[in-house]
Amino acid sequence: MELDRYDRRILEVLQEEGRISNQDLAERIGLSASPCLRRVKALEENGLIAGYRALLDAKKLGFTLTVLIQISMDRHTPERFANFEARVGELDEVMECLLITGQDADYLLKAVVRDMDAYQELLLNKITRIEGVSGVHSSFVMRRVVDKTALPVGRA
Question: Are residues 72 and 125 in the same domain?
Protein backbone atom coordinates (compact mmCIF):
# COMPACT_ATOMS: atom_id res chain seq x y z
CA MET A 1 0.00 0.00 0.00
CA GLU A 2 1.38 3.38 -1.03
CA LEU A 3 1.08 5.93 1.80
CA ASP A 4 0.45 9.60 1.11
CA ARG A 5 0.73 12.47 3.57
CA TYR A 6 -2.83 11.96 4.86
CA ASP A 7 -2.23 8.28 5.57
CA ARG A 8 1.03 9.07 7.37
CA ARG A 9 -0.65 11.78 9.41
CA ILE A 10 -3.50 9.41 10.33
CA LEU A 11 -0.96 6.86 11.54
CA GLU A 12 0.94 9.49 13.53
CA VAL A 13 -2.18 10.76 15.29
CA LEU A 14 -3.61 7.31 16.01
CA GLN A 15 -0.32 6.18 17.57
CA GLU A 16 -0.54 9.05 20.04
CA GLU A 17 -4.32 9.12 20.52
CA GLY A 18 -5.84 5.75 19.69
CA ARG A 19 -9.23 6.74 21.10
CA ILE A 20 -9.65 9.93 19.05
CA SER A 21 -13.01 10.16 17.32
CA ASN A 22 -13.11 9.97 13.54
CA GLN A 23 -14.48 13.52 13.40
CA ASP A 24 -11.60 14.89 15.49
CA LEU A 25 -9.07 12.86 13.50
CA ALA A 26 -10.49 14.17 10.23
CA GLU A 27 -10.27 17.77 11.46
CA ARG A 28 -6.72 17.24 12.71
CA ILE A 29 -5.45 15.96 9.35
CA GLY A 30 -7.52 18.24 7.13
CA LEU A 31 -10.04 15.83 5.59
CA SER A 32 -13.77 15.42 5.90
CA ALA A 33 -15.05 12.56 8.08
CA SER A 34 -16.05 10.08 5.33
CA PRO A 35 -12.73 10.01 3.44
CA CYS A 36 -10.88 9.90 6.74
CA LEU A 37 -12.86 6.86 7.89
CA ARG A 38 -12.29 5.14 4.53
CA ARG A 39 -8.54 5.71 4.88
CA VAL A 40 -8.48 4.36 8.45
CA LYS A 41 -10.40 1.25 7.34
CA ALA A 42 -7.97 0.74 4.43
CA LEU A 43 -4.99 1.08 6.78
CA GLU A 44 -6.56 -1.52 9.09
CA GLU A 45 -7.43 -3.91 6.23
CA ASN A 46 -3.89 -3.67 4.83
CA GLY A 47 -2.41 -4.52 8.24
CA LEU A 48 -0.65 -1.21 8.78
CA ILE A 49 -2.82 -0.72 11.86
CA ALA A 50 -2.39 -4.00 13.71
CA GLY A 51 -4.73 -3.17 16.60
CA TYR A 52 -5.60 -0.78 19.39
CA ARG A 53 -4.48 -1.16 23.00
CA ALA A 54 -4.42 0.66 26.30
CA LEU A 55 -0.95 1.42 27.69
CA LEU A 56 -0.81 0.65 31.39
CA ASP A 57 1.48 2.02 34.09
CA ALA A 58 3.48 -0.99 35.32
CA LYS A 59 4.64 0.65 38.53
CA LYS A 60 1.13 1.72 39.54
CA LEU A 61 0.08 -1.91 39.05
CA GLY A 62 2.88 -3.08 41.34
CA PHE A 63 5.43 -4.22 38.74
CA THR A 64 8.41 -2.35 40.18
CA LEU A 65 11.21 -4.16 38.35
CA THR A 66 11.88 -4.34 34.65
CA VAL A 67 14.59 -6.80 33.71
CA LEU A 68 16.41 -7.51 30.46
CA ILE A 69 17.41 -11.15 30.27
CA GLN A 70 19.92 -12.53 27.78
CA ILE A 71 19.37 -16.22 27.10
CA SER A 72 21.90 -18.59 25.56
CA MET A 73 20.78 -21.90 24.09
CA ASP A 74 22.77 -25.14 24.21
CA ARG A 75 21.98 -26.09 20.61
CA HIS A 76 20.97 -24.00 17.63
CA THR A 77 18.33 -26.22 16.10
CA PRO A 78 14.92 -25.19 14.81
CA GLU A 79 13.25 -27.59 17.27
CA ARG A 80 15.15 -26.19 20.26
CA PHE A 81 14.31 -22.61 19.27
CA ALA A 82 10.65 -23.42 18.57
CA ASN A 83 10.26 -25.09 21.96
CA PHE A 84 11.89 -22.15 23.76
CA GLU A 85 9.75 -19.61 21.91
CA ALA A 86 6.54 -21.50 22.66
CA ARG A 87 7.37 -21.87 26.36
CA VAL A 88 8.53 -18.29 26.87
CA GLY A 89 5.40 -17.07 25.09
CA GLU A 90 3.35 -18.61 27.91
CA LEU A 91 5.07 -16.53 30.61
CA ASP A 92 2.92 -13.55 31.59
CA GLU A 93 5.92 -11.64 32.94
CA VAL A 94 7.70 -11.65 29.55
CA MET A 95 6.73 -8.55 27.62
CA GLU A 96 9.08 -9.05 24.67
CA CYS A 97 11.19 -11.89 23.33
CA LEU A 98 13.70 -11.07 20.62
CA LEU A 99 15.91 -13.50 18.70
CA ILE A 100 19.19 -11.60 18.42
CA THR A 101 22.63 -11.75 16.76
CA GLY A 102 25.94 -10.14 17.55
CA GLN A 103 25.95 -11.14 21.23
CA ASP A 104 26.87 -14.22 23.22
CA ALA A 105 23.14 -14.66 23.79
CA ASP A 106 20.52 -16.02 21.40
CA TYR A 107 17.50 -14.25 22.89
CA LEU A 108 16.81 -11.01 24.70
CA LEU A 109 13.76 -10.95 26.95
CA LYS A 110 12.12 -7.95 28.53
CA ALA A 111 10.16 -8.90 31.64
CA VAL A 112 8.30 -7.09 34.40
CA VAL A 113 7.99 -8.42 37.94
CA ARG A 114 6.76 -7.14 41.28
CA ASP A 115 10.04 -7.49 43.14
CA MET A 116 13.28 -9.47 43.40
CA ASP A 117 11.47 -12.49 44.89
CA ALA A 118 9.17 -12.59 41.87
CA TYR A 119 12.19 -12.32 39.57
CA GLN A 120 13.88 -15.21 41.34
CA GLU A 121 10.71 -17.29 40.88
CA LEU A 122 10.57 -16.41 37.18
CA LEU A 123 14.23 -17.17 36.61
CA LEU A 124 14.74 -20.31 38.69
CA ASN A 125 11.37 -22.00 38.35
CA LYS A 126 10.37 -21.02 34.83
CA ILE A 127 13.07 -19.72 32.48
CA THR A 128 15.98 -21.97 33.46
CA ARG A 129 13.69 -24.98 33.38
CA ILE A 130 13.00 -24.55 29.68
CA GLU A 131 14.83 -27.28 27.81
CA GLY A 132 17.91 -25.97 26.03
CA VAL A 133 18.56 -22.87 28.14
CA SER A 134 22.27 -23.00 28.91
CA GLY A 135 23.03 -19.48 30.07
CA VAL A 136 21.26 -16.47 31.53
CA HIS A 137 22.50 -12.93 32.10
CA SER A 138 20.20 -10.36 33.69
CA SER A 139 20.29 -6.56 33.75
CA PHE A 140 17.83 -4.49 35.75
CA VAL A 141 16.41 -1.27 34.35
CA MET A 142 17.17 1.64 36.66
CA ARG A 143 15.24 4.28 34.71
CA ARG A 144 13.51 4.57 31.36
CA VAL A 145 15.26 7.30 29.41
CA VAL A 146 13.27 6.93 26.17
CA ASP A 147 10.01 4.98 26.18
CA LYS A 148 8.22 5.25 22.84
CA THR A 149 5.58 3.14 21.21
CA ALA A 150 5.05 5.33 18.13
CA LEU A 151 6.89 4.49 14.91
CA PRO A 152 8.37 7.42 12.93
CA VAL A 153 5.92 7.06 10.01
CA GLY A 154 6.20 10.72 9.04
CA ARG A 155 9.83 10.14 8.12
CA ALA A 156 9.48 6.70 6.53
Answer: yes
